[in-house]
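A common beginner's mistake is to predict each chain separately and then try to dock the pieces by hand. The better habit, illustrated here, is to supply every component at once so that their relative placement is modeled jointly.
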Amino acid sequence: MIRVLLADDQHLVRQAMAALLSFEPDIEVVAEVERGDLVVAAVAEHRPDVVLLDIEMPGRDGLSVAADLDVKVIILTTFGRPGYLRRAMDAGVSGFVVKDARAEELAAAIRDVCAGGRVVDRRLAAASRTTGACPLTARERAALRAAAGGGTIADVAARLFLSPGTVRNYLSAAIRKTGARNRAEAARIAETNGWL
Amino acid sequence: MIRVLLADDQHLVRQAMAALLSFEPDIEVVAEVERGDLVVAAVAEHRPDVVLLDIEMPGRDGLSVAADLDVKVIILTTFGRPGYLRRAMDAGVSGFVVKDARAEELAAAIRDVCAGGRVVDRRLAAASRTTGACPLTARERAALRAAAGGGTIADVAARLFLSPGTVRNYLSAAIRKTGARNRAEAARIAETNGWL
DNA sequence: GGGCGAACCTGACGAATGTCACACGCGGGG
DNA sequence: CCCCGCGTGTGACATTCGTCAGGTTCGCCC
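With all components supplied together, the output reads:
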């Protein structure tokens, strides 16, 4: 029996996914978690064989959680952003499945991963090869993320404890590197690539 | 037996939701659709009692689909945006459930709606009362939506066949009405309220 | 018909933004 | 050791953006 822990912030999706997996005779959902910051404790308590992790959760980011777990992890997310896949691989996850997959694919991925394999969504793997790594430095990312919400330069500078001129330089660099024509577009491009 | 049609763009979520509803003895999922523009034909073919509609789908928006259906509709969406609820009500839907609800709530909503009732998520109804209606005119909305992607004023003007000055005026009005300090923030505010 | 608001447009002005050149300190790799 | 890239900062400049005041044309309602 493969013991699975489910982490997803939407209750209905979590229950539904559990219902779906209950049809698999060799898979058992032993726990459900709705916040990223509760996953580590739940894993310690329930000792699952595989953790299904959503990325966007309250409390803590699924990708950073994955880096702290030493059980096998499958990222199960809505958004097939190339950057997500890359970061997930860096975090040492064993599988990456998008929520548009078939139920059989998910079950197969769980079995494969449990047996020591690695499973990655095909289309995403292809997209990841073409998109390449994030060209932004850590500070540029931070500045772009802070600016994405719609704040002004002064806001970003205040939040990052930087001089406004520096923020402008970072954003300018981000705009150039993403090939965008202004902050908003740069933020959108970085967002869809999973660079933020 | 209550006949249900499921419309959601994510295959796994759709299958999982069907699995969840299969545990309810009086509910039967008779069809699944993955695109908004296929819902009307599927309803004509399968004659469900209730349609579960996601909002954000490829092909066609769930809210506009709802307006064309004369069966009972429950909107089932991730995003509890007040504006979505308002537009859903205008479209004549019978229920509005967020994906963070419990499975029992969803089943209860299906039964209530099938019996002629109306079901609306409590927290969302409260939020909807405080937020109020969308203050933007149709053109302002269009301009803001076109600008949200990150394009420049000239881009928006070209896409809407308007003069750049007019676009600036619309965006300025949108910024004023949303209480934002620039386009990006206005777009974000309108987005979270479901006004776009 | 008169008033009103929305859709369109123009022109002008100040403020914010994007770009560039340049400067300094720091750490890592050749 | 010395260079290079990164983080940090400054100042100047052109462009874009946000605002305002004004104008014309509709259609709708009283």
